Amino acid sequence: MHLTQTNYEEVESDCQNVPPTKFNTCFHTVEEIPAHESTNHLSRPSEAPYSFERWLPLVLKTRNLDAKVAQIVKLRRAEAKLVVAASGTSIITGEHNRAYQEDIQEEIIPHLSSLDFPAEGLFMRLDRCSPKDGRQAVPGRLSLHSPTDIIIGLITSQRARNEILKSLEGGSPTVDLTFLPFNKRMGSEREYRVYCAPETGAVSAVSQYCWHKPWHFDCEEHENQTRAGDQIWEGIQTIHKSILHDLDPDDRLDQLLLKQGLSFDVFYDETDETSQLVELNVFGARSGCGSCLFHWINDWDQLYGHCERVEFRVSRGNKKHTSVSGVTDQGADTATIATVLMEL
Hints:
The protein is an alpha+beta fold. The chain is globular and about 60 Å long. It has a 7-stranded mixed β-sheet. The protein has a 3-stranded antiparallel β-sheet with strand order 2-4-3. Helix content is 32%, strand content 19%. The relative contact order is 0.20. This is Cell division cycle protein 123.
């Protein structure tokens, strides 16, 4: 594994572009796909193999949680349509849509009232996303402690609305809401996205998930940065092996996942040096998976597994603990100033 740091000034500059042009790209057009790869990667990959429900047992296992802590609420199609209708205005106002408030109270709240709310609260997840862009009933409190908290977060989230609409359009009989115990330590600044090449499933690249900010360990001494990188990589390898081991050779969707490639997000907690699986995601330049500190086209060979070693990119904002010793192979393609920290 080859850990490199990208100059945060360049990342910050690219953040001014909407969407960014050098980092975190997605949904590339057919015309952008390299000619020599055009026979294999022109179509949009299916998202079905990466279902949260499919991978929930492994998510719980890596978190040392019993399967019983996962609470699932299934909304029927009519109820899901009600949430979509209510969200039309609520996404803009951040408030309940009074026209639908009584219907939600009668049809949705009873499903949520049966939930067990632990002291730390709950975290809500739909099949392909969490409604993290929704408003909090109590500003700044991300954990959910009541049915009202859930409804507010759900109907004010564009991510949730898009996911529910996609499920309805796909003919799904229910829209599932999964609730897990809230972990206040979990946050994007402690998460890493791992890219695994099509066909082989081998890890090809890793990036800090919160690509638009300096690395979480940016201000640490070099020794601590090295230790963190070592521990994160070790955790990634363990989770990666578990994912591959869990694939069923006779399951069509599992084999489609391997054929298409995959990405998965890992949470690393430096307090006890543990790593947990957050979710699996789709893979590829044509997909909606963000490339974080990489670029799907400019870093094609790295992301698609054509390079000899895995590159692990983080962002450098603090120059105190950094000594320049080279530029990564892929860095020249993205005009990224990369500093080699270590090779494992």
